[in-house]
## 1
Amino acid sequence: MIDTTPISVCHGCDATVDMARDFPFACPNAGGENDDIDHVLVPTYDSGEFITGTEANPFLRYRALLSPYRLGRSVGLPDDAWTEIVGTLERKLIAVDGRAFRVTPMLPQPALAKALAMNATLWVKDETGNVAGSHKARHLMGVMLYLRILEAGKLPAAAALRARRLAIASCGNAALAAAVVARASEWPLDAYIPPDANISVVKRLKELGATINVCNRRPGETGDPCMRGFRQAVQDGAIPFSVQGPENGLAIEGGRTLAFEMAEAFSAAGDTPAALFVQIGGGALASALWQGLAIANKSCFLPHLPRLMMVQTVGCAPFAHCWQRLSGVELADAVRHRSRFMWPWTSTPASAATGILDDETYDWWEAAKGVRETGGDALVVDEDAIMRAYKLSKMHTGISASTTGTAGLAGLLMTAARGESMAVVFSGGDL
Ligand SMILES: Cc1ncc(COP(=O)(O)O)c(C=O)c1O
């Protein structure tokens, strides 16, 4: 039994949300008039201990580090209740997608390291075999487990829960992950997609039972029409089944499991790489990796942190530009003046790495904190590097990752250091 219910704290305004009573999704203070604060609810983990199990499923293995589990225990649910919920979902995920959540490989890739003339280890985290084919489902499984715990514990926030549909604005890996997790949970999902969405993704979303809402741009409209549709749905009562921290801070937490796995792999090998290269679009992946590694480091499980190197492309680099603007600025000040540091990319985003073309890095602040605290950097790569990374991955690893999935490697190609061990995440396969 855990004594207190877990809380989320907004990193911008310090608002706290008790997860048993209110949804830890968007900050309750977000959207205020003349408010320039970056509001994101961050699930807290104060125990300082890096507690892991031995299970192959990361949502069992790291349950003590996850707030939905701690919520369940704090309201009297036994450990078995969590195992039962995760196990039931696992069986349904296998039926829907043929895959379940497993600790994914984090292995040295000597042939790739050799091709890069490295004389140190090149670690590759392979997410291509994860549920729905990318890391995205980790974010959404965390949210779904929270919803299931609310139901199982009959908690105040569970009132009329099943009457609320899930909503997501995406037509890529995030939408596929949302549709798989929603289908396995028998929870209806609305996907808000643009008219030019990838046909095979739309087909799969329909097969998975998602309701498709095509969002056309209105005359004179500047923002993303899909986000407009999504936000309207959430205002009307839908659950934000989103992988963007400002819309759903809890989604970031599920992604921390990736970092916990990395920490275990590095610790077992006695080799923490000097740098970790991460492709960054909306920024949820980078935020999650930073938060997860920081937890492992705070507990001394991981004695030092790799430098976080964020990778964007010439055709869409809002985070890299934001990082330059942050030079010499206290992050505690920047979080209260969002519009001075982060704004949407002003031309039409373009790159072969289509998964990182978010015109805004929604989760910029946590990502920037990770870069700042680890002594990392933000890199901008050209299309030649994106394609070289993609081809090298095909030639020298057995992993079939997409151009987005290998974009972090493009960042490594740009750097001169070859004598220190490095890590990249192959975050997804071809769509
Ligand atoms: C395979 C893959 N990798 C990385 C990313 C970037 O993740 P984030 O948007 O959280 O920065 C995406 C986003 O769609 C993706 O699909």
## 2
Amino acid sequence: MAYTVTKLKDYSPTTLDTAAKELLRALDQEATAIRNEPDWKAFRDRWMARKNGVLTQVNDLWLKTAPKEAKRNVGQRVNELKKAAEQTIEAALQQIEAKAVLSRLIGDRLDVTLPGISRPIGAEHPVIKASNDMVGVFRNLGFSVQEGPEIETDYYNFESLNFPPNHPARDTQDTLFIANQQSKPLREQLLLRTHTSPVQIRTMEKIKPPIRIVIPGKVYRNDPPDASHSPMFHQIEGLAVDTNITFGDLKGTLDHAMKAFFGSSVKTSFRPSFFPFTEPSAELLVSCFVCGGSGRRGSDPCRPCKQTGWIEILGCGMVDPNVFEFVKHNGYEPSKVSGFAFGMGADRIALLKYGVDDLQLFFQNDVRFLSQFA
Ligand SMILES: [Zn+2]
């Protein structure tokens, strides 16, 4: 039964005491029952509301009706009760606020026995890792890294690299051309670069000799995917041009690079070859680092070197003077400068380095496979 204010039967101190005690007991009881902020607001309004709040009623029913001689005494009591009510209301508010903070803290509590959230750390793709390692070898030799667009013009991809107009590499069988460009002159037609070599010309147009650059990047050819082919793959090329570069510089540089990359025990060997943009041209082979050059692993034939004891790594040669003709306006006078260039497949390097026998594994994005190399 909720407390209600009733008229006093007289204004004696005893009666006042009893009525005040009853009121304070009700105040305390109601304060104890408060659970949340809406409870507290209702409590505050019930006691303090100007219109018809408990204390207003006390004022009306006890003080206003008191005879003159009792007014002072009753007034003092009513003031004490008002103060007590204010304090109780204030204390009740503090209590529910403290309770809210506490329950928030409990909600935020960490259960240290729960398993942690694992965030796998990313790692370089094995092809990129092998490429970066090889690029690092040449950077240590003073080569700087250059990059270029993957969509190229016929001019940079073929013409300026001394590919004759009817060279088989220009055939759509090998090259992925961008569609609907028949109205453009041939040299402006766009294609997906088939090698990183266009960056050699682009760099020589920008930077006067001497230069030493290494060029990593993606290239594209119209090859169906199989264990050793992919329509997208990665190359690393290099170019050094100065006034007195010889084939001896080429051999010394590449021999050092192969030892730095595959291990100091590998031997190198050069075989004559042909590329449109180098003359003379060669293929570089390294002695097989799997079988040590014997062609056999125990009683089994060695697969990486196909039992020959040698593995083909890259193509290279002295820059054909015809290539310098395209950039002679920037200081590459064919009679004054000479240089060497080389190019290799970064994917092939990765296959060899990590002993993987199917190129497709690198591009299937199976994390179980890729994470072995992280
Ligand atoms: Zn071998």
